[in-house]
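Q: What structure does this chain adopt?
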Amino acid sequence: MDRLHTLFHRPPVTWWDAIDILVVSILIYEALKLIRGTRAVQMAIGSVLVLILFSFSNLFPLQTVNWLIRNALLYVGFAIIVLFQSDIRRALANLGRAPGLRSLGRSERTADTIEEVVTAADLLAKDRKGALIVIEREIGLRNYVESGIPVDAAVSYDLLTTIFEPKTRLHDGAVIIQEDRVAAAACFLPLTVSPKLDRDLGTRHRAAIGLTEECDAVAVVVSEERGEISMATNGSLERRLSPEALRQRLRTMVLMRKARHD
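A:
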């Protein structure tokens, strides 16, 4: 009777309770959005099944199962950090992209930067010279910039095409553009481990996809074998882009995005 009395005689719901429920709902929704389409989904399903089994072990005399789950739960936190470190890093980076935390002082030369990148990609594709050009957006790429050779120069198609000349020392690796300047060249990027990629994709394409799986950068790739232009964003690759199509995509992903948040 005491339990029934407690169940049906709860204190009234206040505005703070409603706000509390709303915040928790938003956090759960955002968490589900972050793990959607990743291997973390299987982990979440498995965790729910383990919790259900743990509840049954508490209700029924399943002492061995209960003991096993209680001891295994002690190491679940460490296992999650080790197995899903890239997903956690991406989730924390996305949280840092809230409207109030976005960087100020957007460069007015972004449109010119896009034109220079498109022109360089077109020239390199016609000459069948491989290239990988990364444009930083909201998430900083300092770690990758430090892995390359500092340049700190204005963006121009002359500079970009010269860097990716096969006989130069800087042609291997990626060029990273920050704040409408070429920050560094010959940068090392993480390679994707996705098994769903076409086998004809080379190291540059895998590096472009690998980087954009972890941050919101845009990567332009030129294939030296096929002379085609591709663009990687959010871990996906758009292939066989014409210069005009590349220009429109970059304007949408970089220029218009900046205009919305300035």
